[in-house]
Amino acid sequence: MISCAVCGAQVIESHFGAMVCRACSAFFRRYVLSKNKTILCEKNENCVINRNIKKMCRFCRMVKCLQVGMIPTRINEPIISKSTDKILELLNNYTRFQEERFIVHGPSVEKINFLTASTIMEADYRLARNHIERSSKEFVKIPKKNQNALFDHYYTGCIVAEGLYFVVNSGRTDRFCGQTGRQTLPIEQYFLGEHKNTILTDTQINDIFQPFWRRGLIELVNPLIELKLDLFEYTSLFVLMLFDGSSKGIDEECVEICYQIRNIIFREISSYHKEIDHPRPFDRMADIMHALTLMEKGKQMLADQFTLCCLHKLDHNEQICLIFKETLQ
Fold first, then answer.
1. Number of C-beta neighbours around residue 32 at 10 A
2. Which three-class secondary structure state does DSSP give residue 14?
3. Cα 38 to Cα 16, 58, 59, 270, distances in angstroms
4. Residue (of 142, 146, 125) closest to 249 by Cα position
5. Higher confidence at residue 83 or residue 74?
6. Closest Cα partner for 169 from 103, 161, 192, 27?
7. What is the CA radius of gyration of the chain?
8. What single DSSP character describes residue 150?
9. Residue 267 belongs to a domain with what CATH number?
10. Domain NR LBD, which positions (predicted)?
11. What are the residues whose beta carbons fall under 8 Å from the beta carbon of 151, sequence distance 6 or more?
């Protein structure tokens, strides 16, 4: 492992022209973008800069950043905008997203099987990406590699979150919904594709997949019904899922951006609860965090269903199956 050229910490990749750690990269960015650039050394401008020192001299640290080759001009304007309406931006653009879905998927209200549901997931991928790019100024400023990794991680959660939203609001908990709101067929028909290549009987399919549906009802749907999230709170889940610093394939700089954006989202949620005079705002924030863990659990359940479909040669969409595998490895 390479050591940071500034403080000696471990380094994974280059930042602003030098092999430095995430902490020194963030320090360098903050200084370059700050309005007040006057910093002084309290000693003789030869302070030791080491990761084990709790409070390093800012002046000497900045000098060392420049000495090791960090380039100020490589820092663009801040990616994170000053707007504090990130949840509302996503929510306000949702109507257009639904209109585009109507054009692509049509007005059909027929119940869907697993193959149709996963095919809709693939067709919806580009529409959902467009929706995010319209709704988040920060997302489009992030390098493409990070965008792709963040979105793939987000999209699997989006599939689960939208499906659960429609189930919770339909008043019916005996069957699930796809991400566009279309109800699923009964379980023994849901996992039979158009070609019916499987040798499994309806009873066998029911025995294999019924536990997933039962778990989904007990562990996902019922808890969400109890939480009673309103539309603003539920939309906040989508923004938090999008800027998830644990997403596979993003660099350390993107992790830092996600961390900052999520802090802004939490402040938006807190402000919203103050505006509506919520009687238990701190408990409500905990409810939203719990809902996020439910979405992660739902992603794993859906990924497991794809795995079983492959195992038993049940029809499904291979491209969506691959996205689930890559993001949940």
1. 17
2. coil
3. 21, 10, 9, 34
4. 146
5. 74
6. 161
7. 24
8. H
9. 1.10.565.10
10. 86-329
11. 129, 132, 139, 242
Domain boundary among 47, 74, 101: 74
What string of H, E and C letters represents the secondary structure of 202-234? HHHHHHHHHHHHHHHHHHHHHHHHHHCCCHHHH
Task: State the residue for tokens 């309406």.
Answer: 85
pLDDT in tens, 212-226: 888 888 899 999 999
Question: What is the number of domains present in the chain?
Answer: 2
From 74, 104, 124, the end of a domain falls on 74
Highest mean pLDDT of the ranges 144-158, 170-184, 205-219: 144-158
Place of tokens 């001299």: 57
Task: Tell whether 312 is covered by a domain.
Answer: yes
Residues 6+ apart with CB under 8 A from 62: 27, 28, 31, 39
Tell whether 63 and 162 lie within a shared domain. no
Residues whose CB is less than 8 angstroms from the CB of residue 14 and which lie 6 or more positions away in sequence, other chains included: 20
Tell me how far apart the alpha carbons of residues 21 and 106 are, in angstroms, rounded to a whole number.
50
Reported residue count of the chain is 329
- Going by C-alpha positions, the residue among 52, 45, 46 that lies closest to residue 3 is 52
DSSP state of 3: E
* pLDDT per position as a tens digit, 228-283: 999 999 999 999 999 999 998 898 888 888 988 998 899 999 999 999 999 999 99
Q: What is the pLDDT of residue 161?
A: 93
